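Example record for the data management plan.
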Amino acid sequence: MSGNSIGVLFKVTTWGESHGPAVGAVVDGCPSLIPLGEEDIQRELDRRKPGKGPGETSRAEPDRVRILSGIFEGRTTGTPICLLIANTDARPGDYETLRDLYRPGHGDRTYEQKYGIRDHRGGGRASGRETAARVAAGAVARKVLDGAGIFVSACTRELGGIAAEGYDPAEAERNGLFCPDPAAVPKMRERLEEARRLEDSVGGIVEIRVLGCPPGLGEPVFGKMDADLAGALMGIGTVKGVEIGAGFEAARMTGSRCNDPVGGDESASNNAGGILAGITTGREILIRAACKPIPSIGIPQETLDRRGTRAVISIRGRHDVCVIPRIVPVCEAMVRIVLADHYLRQKAVRGA
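Corresponding structural encoding:
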């Protein structure tokens, strides 16, 4: 009922608030005997931390993970794995002026309408800070997928209207923006600096690719692979749309152009994005997630206070100008969690 968990056999529950003592995750259903240490999780968390790009928050969280359970002598035990990430640079006082004001574009008002109470300190559970827990859990899922030969990578396909035309995955890991096109990097940096000067924000598109996924993962009706992947990505606060394969472009195609040939040349079209009838085909899975601009901006905006009185708000403090690049590892993590769950479910179906 509470909506804080994802998965069937590989189940992840995240907990914690932006300016509480800590955030974290519980991973239940991870198979036993998988080598896993804090360093495996820390590598992924370090990719999400601020400090890689010009438009990122000055909040200096070290994001050091602690494994509290589920590991013995460097291997998983099959019992729940509890992951804790302390909040060491929280400043709840920075948000005191927002106690009675609803921030445009945020979930302040909808949270209060649902629960009758809200945590105004950075948005509580609605804060991007919660995604650190997802990345930590995704690192555990990565270890499961490594044993299956399934590889997930993501990159910045577009930022603030600047598109990456080329695709060099090695370049994406070098430039701090996860951009796979070196020619687009300086233009993206300029766009971020412009938005910061204007006290505005920009959005972008993340592209996720999955290699080595075997055919047969996903359920035929409810629990389709594409539905679960889209749902997991849409569960990230900033994501407002998801495309798989040709995506919305498929609506403009004819059937003869959209249908992928069966068998034969692997370089043939992959408009289905590696998924048909909700089940993986064995081809590369290609997903794109559209991320909205950060809603916390310095430009004055109209709003209401909790009494329903009209007001004007200008948000100050430590905020990203764009969710990219920090959202890229989060998208990878959510895709890994879904794939790990379906991989284990398929093993149960086929008995191997």
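Summary line stored alongside the record: DSSP finds eight helices and 16 strands in the chain.
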